[in-house]
Amino acid sequence: MTVHPTARSRDERIDFWRGLCIVGMASWHLLTHQSFPQTLAFSVIQPFNFVAEGFVLLAGTAVGLQFVNGTLSAGRLLRRAGEMLLVNYGLIGFVVVLSSIEVHSGLPVQARPPGSIWDVLVLHYQPYLADVLTVFVFLFATAPVFTMVYERWAASGLVLLSAGLFATAHLFPLNSQGAFVYNSWQIFFVAGFLLGVHYRALVERKVSAGLLVSVLLLFVGIAAFRFVAGQDGAATDGWGALYVFSRKPLTIARVTYIGLQLLVIGLFTLRWWPWLARTLAVRSIASLGRFSLHVFVASVILDYLLKLVLDLHAIVFPANLLLWAGELAVLFVLSRALMWRHEKLADVRLRSRLAAPHHT
To answer: Range with the lowest mean pLDDT among 170-174, 226-230, 295-299, 310-314?
Structure first.
């Protein structure tokens, strides 16, 4: 396989999309606190319905790109799964300590403590907000199987495998303790992998105004239907279960709704990227996406701490907006610090190579 000179370079559009997911998740998590008006939370959260699904899909996209570029290995994927597992344990430790402080302070406990160490080790215990990490453990651990299936049977074989895993959800539900059941959420990861495999060809195509408008109208139509049916729908019997907009269990309506939302954002970004890339807002959001794991973990820790501050001091609207703005500001500063550190380390490595003696 021939790798183009630019194939290994970083695509800031993917960082931007991932950064949008971070902004959405951080905002969504904090704004669900009872001190914020429901109308504000609703108006901010609704444009970010895609964030969890988008985060998983983009992880699959990164794996697909690495697969095409020839930089992917089973060992690398398993190490990533191990990293996610350790980060998950670290966050659980933080949650347990904070929960103990809340109990002794007589404050509402945001996450129940685990029943035992065994519950933690086997991922049965999944605290609020941190539970998305556990599904990533499963996704990266099984990604080598996905790549092997794709190599042997191409996209059709991988899609059949994904459908088969989804069908086993009632018999062998993996990671069912949290909000993100592996059997369902691997669909977005696999879709992202296939997107990554064909990413270069797809992004080089011109996005016509007609295509963008058509997809936007489809999304508006299903969004209107969602609000008529109710936020999660009402009918759960017979065919009615197909249009319940549920995350757990994942439904056809939810996949269609989120898929169209992601497609609108993707097409809009691709069509106007040369202009968008020059704006400070987009560059800042892309920096969040570049270090998404670090920033996500920081957002979870900040969410717990800021909600503790809101409870301790009974801060209400509009003063609580300062905490929301402060959280986003901290995350942006963190991403810039990580970028500075990354660039310094890269500069040190480059100087070391240049200073090393050359052997003939």
So the answer is: 226-230
